[in-house]
Amino acid sequence: MTNLPSIKQLQYLLAVHQHQHFGRAAEACFIGQSTLSSAIQNLEETLGCQLIERENRSLMFTDIGEEVVERARKIIDDTMSVKELTKSYKNPLSGKLTLGIIPTIASFIAAPLYQACKKEFAALNLVLVEDTSDNLLDKLEHGHIDMAMLALPYRTDKFHTQVLAKDHFSLVRHTEYSVPEPIEDFNLLPEQSVFLLEKEHCMTGHALSACHLNRSACINPFEAANLHTLLSMVEYKNGVTFLPQMAINAGILEGKPLVAMPPQDHAYREIGLIWRRTTGRIRDFRLFSDFVGGYISGQCQSQ
Asked: Which keywords does this Swiss-Prot/TrEMBL entry list (predicted)?
């Protein structure tokens, strides 16, 4: 039979590529550095080509080494999917499931969703990770999380996307700060009166798009790093902002002299779950998304 690389050798190769250091890769694999180096050398001998150039304490992957890494990543994903498939078939929604959630969703539903899932799926060990959309997509691609909950639209072409609900935006103002009602065009609001989060937060982009704000003179140049700062600007009657219904239903305006104007039909973001197309846990993920979808829809309903 043809002498083929082992799964373990490919896993070691991916570890070296990730850490760019033999010592750190060995620690991550819980083996000695000599064992790791020997495994990589045997892999190179099996393939008949050099994958890594070594010089003193530095290393660099060769061109063919980079290509092998990409193929190895797919092989490991496919192998994991076989194991996940059989486990999911025997025990649906059991074991560990790591779900990444962006801050502008996690702030409002992470805790109650965690409790609801614990009650619904007793055998499931749900682990939540809060991070930005870009970081979660990177973690998902490299297998560090199983699923991600994002606000859409977003660039998720590599993954399967399941839309769960529409989360409408409302204009939020101080009770003593007057704006015309109804508002036909948000761009006609007073100059520099609209306060938003930093551009790094996808909620800003979704609010601009959903409310058809074109970065006109009504947008204040100040960008808040968090929702607490954002709402404080509105509390001091400096202007208005836009919040999703999920945040309002979670009580973010309680105890504050702020009101939310009824949302417009076209002004919304979508909440979605995404996962790798190669996963063997599709059955699990669909069951999970059906439950979470019902829960999220309830959190996004106008009250």
From this structure: DNA-binding, Transcription, Transcription regulation
Q: What is the pTM of this model?
A: 0.71
Q: In the chain, what's the furthest Cα-to-Cα distance?
A: 81
Q: What angle do CA 161, 164, 129 make, to 5 degrees?
A: 70
- pLDDT more than 70, % of the chain: 95
Cα separation, 17 vs 10, whole angstroms: 11
Mean model confidence pLDDT for the chain: 87
* CA–CA distance, 6 with 95 (Å, rounded to integer): 26
| Dist CA 198 CA 17 (whole Å) | 33
Count of CB atoms situated within 10 Å of the CB of 111:
12
- Structure tokens, 175: 């009770």
Give the model's pLDDT for residue 227.
86
**Alpha-carbon dihedral sign for residues 144, 149, 151, 152:** positive
Tell me which residue of 103, 114, 88, 160 sits closest to 292, measured CA to CA. Answer: 114
Q: Which DSSP letter does residue 240 get?
A: B
Q: Rounded CA gap, 47 and 45, in Å? A: 5
CA-CA distance, 69 to 67, in Å (whole number)?
Answer: 5
Interval 226-244 mean pLDDT: 91
User: Which residue(s) pair with 163 in the sheet?
Assistant: 272
pLDDT-based confidence at residue 15 (cuts at 50, 70, 90):
very high
Task: Supply angle C-alpha 133, 137, 141, rounded to 5.
Answer: 175
Asked if residue 109 lies in contact with residue 249, where contact means CB atoms within 8 angstroms, the answer is no
Give tens-digit pLDDT for 268-293: 899 999 999 888 788 889 999 999 99
Residue with tokens 């601009």: 208
Q: Indicate the helix (H) or strand (E) that contains 209.
A: helix 202-210
